[in-house]
Sequence to fold (267 residues):
Amino acid sequence: MSNLQLDSNDNMVNLYNKRLKDININEICNGTLRELTQWRDDCHKQIDEIYQRKSEELDVYIKKIKNTYEEKKINVQTNIHQLNEENKKNIENNDIIKTIIQSIEQDLNDIEQLSIKINTRLLTIDDSYVHIEKEFNFENLSSNYSKFNYSTTSSSALASNKEFLLMHQSPNLCLIDRDCKIVKQNVWPHDWIRDMCWSETWNCFIIITTNDIYCINEILEYSTSLIDVVKQVWFSCTCSNQSLYLSTCEWGSSIFQFNLLPSFTLI
Fold:
């Protein structure tokens, strides 16, 4: 065996040893456990946010109920006192007494009708929300998929956040949930959609047309165009936590970087 072949074999051995040494099986196992724990924490966070929002809403309504109760209570007590005074006069004054009694009855009925009802629905979490891929292979991908038909007038741009997929089904923008159902749609009144992405920082979708940029929230409300001074023909977009990046419709496109915070500015 020549020296060249020996050197080559030595290099291969060294390479294999390095590859084996670089594999950290504990990090692989612990990393997936961290992902599962993060999923649990994110779910708890969403529940806590809903609870906090509904608690604040309930507090406002409780204060309203209590104020109404106190007003009606004072009215009843005042009318009871007035009824006692009328009875002490030992004179017939049926009309006044009748009016007082009617007022007491009405206020007591109103108080008895005061109520606070909370309708809750138990969370349904499908076991498939967490899938452990023991061995990844493209052939293992499920053939049970959903299909959305695009018309020739619909943009092919797509974007998603943790809850919804945003897509254009001409003439509407559509929000698609995890069950592949349209949960919200609204007419898109602006130019052809070039691209779209989700901004975690702004908590909204960003859509670019040929010359404009729009923010769209999860109830499909649109902002006015964000750019007035930069005149470009936009092509594609993506976001980081700090910036929005836009490319232009040309070969060798420049990349425009815009700060998301504290204000939307071109860098």
In short: The CA atoms of residues 39 and 70 lie 46 Å apart. The mean pLDDT is 83. Residues 1-145 form one domain.
